[in-house]
Amino acid sequence: PGTLHVVATPIGNLGDLSPRALEILRTVSAICAEDTRHTRQLLAHFGLERPLLALHQHNEDAQAQQLVARLRAGDSLALVSDAGTPLVSDPGFRLVRAARAEGIRVSPVPGACAAIAALSVAGVPSDRFVFEGFLPAKAAARRERLGQLASETRTVMFYESAHRIEETLADMAAVFGGARRAVIARELTKLFETVLDGELTALQAQVAGDPNQRKGEFVVIVEGAGEDEDARIREGQRLYAKLSEYLK
Ligand code: SAM
Fold it and tell me: Where is the Tetrapyrrole methylase domain (predicted)?
C-alpha cells in the first residue's frame, strides 16, 4: 500500500514550507486539499502541479473510503489544509482514522501550527496547556464553554477570527475576570504580526480602540486560573448551589 503523508503548510510566510514538505508534495500521486484553489496557488508558487482532490468537512466521510482504496492500491497521497497543520481545527481526522484502521502508514511532515507558534512567543506558562480551538459561534454556548474553563489552571489556547474577536474578549473578561492575563497573537509570520499581552480588560480596550488590531487571524492564549482564583471560583459555585437549593 501507499503512504498517507500529513503535510503542514505555512500559516502566512511561504518560507515556512519545509524542503521535505516540498519533496513529498512533488512526488505523491495526488494531494487531498481542503480548498483545491487555495492549494493550487500554493503549489504554483513553488512551480509544482499535482492532481488535487477536495477533502472538506462536507464530503470527508464519503471521500475517505475512496482515498483509502487508492492508498491500498499503492498510491501515496498527501493531505494538506489551507494553512498550518491538518486536523488542528481543520479537516482530516476521518481520513486519518480510516487509513489507520486499514493498516495504512500515516506519516507526518510537521511544520507551522498557529497555536504552537503563538505559545512559543507568548511568555505564559507552557509546560501544560489546553487547546480549545474555536469557541461556539452563538453567545450563550460560547459563555457556557468559557464558564467550564474558568477554573482551569493550565494555559488555555483559542482560535478566533476578525469578526468575533471583540465579542470573545468581552466574554472572556466577563467570565474569567478582567484581571486575568492573556496574550493575543495576530497575523503570525505575516506583515502585520503583533503579539499583545496584558490583563483581559486592558487587551479588550486596546482592541476596541484600534481597528487594525481587529483585522486578520488570531490566537488568544489565556493564563490558567491561579490557585487562589480556583478556590474563589469553587467557593462561588458552592454558594450558587446553596442559593439555588434555597430558591427551589
Ligand atoms: N490548521 C491550522 C493550524 O495549524 O494552526 C489552523 C486552521 S483554523 C481553520 C484557522 C485559525 O487559525 C484562524 O482563525 C486563526 O485563529 C488561526 N491562525 C491561522 N493562521 C494564523 C496566523 N498567521 N496568525 C494567527 N492565527 C492564525
Answer: 3-203
**pTM for the predicted model, two decimal places:** 0.92
Query: Ligand 1: which atom is nearest the Cα of residue 185?
Result: 25
Atom 26, ligand 1: which residue's CA is nearest?
A: 218
pLDDT of residue 17: 98
C-alpha cell at 155: 494555559
Query: Taking the CB of residue 235, how many other CB atoms lie within 10 A of it?
Result: 10
| Pairing mode, strands 194-199 and 181-186 | antiparallel
Q: What is the pLDDT of residue 151?
A: 96
Q: Is 158 in the pocket of ligand 1 (CB under 6 A)?
A: no
* Pocket lining: 188 vs ligand 1, CB cutoff 6 Å: yes
Ligand 1 centroid to 72 CA: how many Å? Answer: 32
**Ligand 1, closest atom to CA 113?**
4
Q: How far apart are CA 28 and CA 3, in angstroms?
A: 9
- List of long-range contacts for 229-232, beta carbons under 8 Å, 24+ apart: 229/151, 229/177, 229/180, 230/151, 230/153
